[in-house]
Write a structure and sequence with these properties.
This protein has 13 helices and eleven strands. The chain is of the alpha+beta class. It has two domains: 205 residues, Rhopdopsin 7-helix transmembrane proteins (Up-down Bundle), CATH 1.20.1070; 222 residues, PPM-type phosphatase domain (Phosphatase 2c, domain 1, 4-Layer Sandwich).
Length: 444
């Protein structure tokens, strides 16, 4: 009961060891209680006719529970061998119980069952004793305790069987103590594996927290203060670390570049590539005024380093002196442009292939004029792909409606509104499925 309760609370992969350990020890204990007259007398009368059937079923199938308790400690051919033992034990058990129901003879196939158990424990003991075999076929942090427990159990079993062969009566308590030693040695190993897994998980969580702090440090600490521009950036990673990245290039107070990227995949691999983009951007600052050249140079620098992954990117360069914007993208969602005069949104696409797909890619640049009170939104696909309960994506049009409905909101206010509207659209408590990043730029 304790083993199964702990397994339910832990719920890790190692919990199965504890579950089968609990079932194995529990059925062993029930079988002993079924042979204890005071216990049987306390049972309701309607249950007593079923006691022989329960006892025989446990006697045949207990080897299956025992081998399953060992299964998660093994690997390779030994694991395959134990699966064969489980299958054989099930066949013998089904046949033995069925024959008992038909004929009333409970020990017809018990010899084969005991032989299967003896072969299994001898093989396991040999593997435990020989270090070369245990290193190859067992997953154990420390084999000493389990080796000792298995050896004591096997010695007691051999002693009991030989004693019966020579008509020498032994006390049942020796068999129970032998099983207890094996049981607690296996429980010790199961607990050791469980806690080792938790220590590894704790170490990974600490490393991920460090990685999150490092990644946060590569993102802009604040938005640049530029004449006639109001800027807000929102970054919502799916996990501790993310593949989304954004960067500002302040050429001077009237000229600036804005980069938003999205690395394929999630987690640590994507975050490492995002940090590479940060470094690569330092070498393309002199091309900030030319979006096409920025993306081409990033592709050239990163292409050979991505190892099968790719990066989508959008780069917007704003010149507030001439009132012009230059935009280019690499397989990225379109730039959303709010025209304050026409009171409508436009989606501007000027795409080449994602970074990392090919060593030579042409990135066309789209140049257009803007006016005071216009607005730009650069975003990753994590903003438009989340679905509601009907399976409908948030989408570009829904995003456009939010921008139109809140044209008078500041960039900071709009940044919060967009995320709130996205959460309301999903309406379900399911976890975030992708990283979400967007940059809002207002012409003052």
């Amino acid at each position: 009961m304790a083993a199964v309760s702990i397994a339910v609370m832990r719920r890790g992969t190692s919990a199965w060891i504890l579950i089968w350990l609990g079932i194995w020890s529990g059925t062993y204990g029930i079988r002993i209680l079924l042979l204890t007259p005071p216990v049987v007398m306390l049972l309701p009368n309607e249950m007593k006719p079923f006691i022989p059937y329960l006892y025989v079923s446990i006697s045949y199938f207990i080897i299956v529970f025992a081998v399953l308790a060992w299964l998660d400690l093994t690997r390779g051919y030994l694991r395959f061998y134990l699966k064969i033992i489980v299958f054989s034990g099930l066949l013998i058990g089904l046949a033995g119980v069925s024959w008992f129901i038909i004929s009333g003879q409970e020990n017809t196939l018990m010899l084969y069952n005991n032989l299967l158990a003896a072969i299994s424990i001898i093989v396991l003991l040999i593997v435990l004793i020989l270090r070369k075999l245990s290193d190859k076929f067992l997953v154990l942090p420390n084999r000493g305790v389990l080796t000792a427990g298995t050896a004591i159990f096997l010695a007691e079993a051999l002693y009991s069987n030989l004693s019966r062969f020579f008509d020498y009566q032994t006390w049942p308590i020796f068999g129970w103590l032998g099983f207890a030693v094996l049981l607690f040695s296996l429980a010790y190993v199961a607990a050791e594996i469980t806690f080792a897994s938790e220590r590894r998980l704790f170490a990974i969580e600490n490393e991920l927290e460090t990685a999150r702090q490092i990644q946060s440090s590569i993102l802009p600490a604040s938005v640049p203060e530029l004449d006639n521009l109001s800027i807000a950036a929102k970054y919502h990673p799916m996990a501790a670390v993310a593949g989304d990245f954004y960067e500002f290039i302040s050429v001077d107070s009237k000229h600036a570049g804005f980069l938003v990227t999205d690395v394929s995949g999630h987690g640590v691999p994507a975050a490492l590539i995002a940090s590479m983009i940060k470094i690569a951007m330092q070498s393309v600052v002199d091309s900030a005024h030319n979006p096409s050249e920025v993306l081409q140079r990033l592709n050239k620098i990163l292409g050979d380093q991505l190892k099968g992954q790719f990066v989508t990117a959008a780069y917007l360069y704003i010149d507030t002196v001439t009132g012009t914007a230059h935009y280019s993208a690499a397989g990225h969602p379109p730039l959303l442009y709010w025209d304050s005069t026409a009171k409508q949104t436009r989606f501007i696409e000027s795409n080449g292939l994602p970074i990392g797909v090919s060593s030579v890619i042409d990135y066309p640049t789209f140049k257009f004029a803007f006016k005071s009170c216009d607005r730009f939104l650069i975003y990753t696909d994590g903003l438009i792909e989340p679905e509601n309960s009907k399976g409908e994506a948030f989408g570009d049009q829904r995003l456009s409606e939010v921008i139109r409905s809140h044209e008078n909101s500041s960039t900071l206010e709009l940044g919060d509104i967009i995320f709130k509207e996205l959460m309301l659209w999903q309406h379900t408590p399911k976890s975030q499925q992708d990283d979400i990043t967007y940059v809002i730029i207002d012409i003052k």
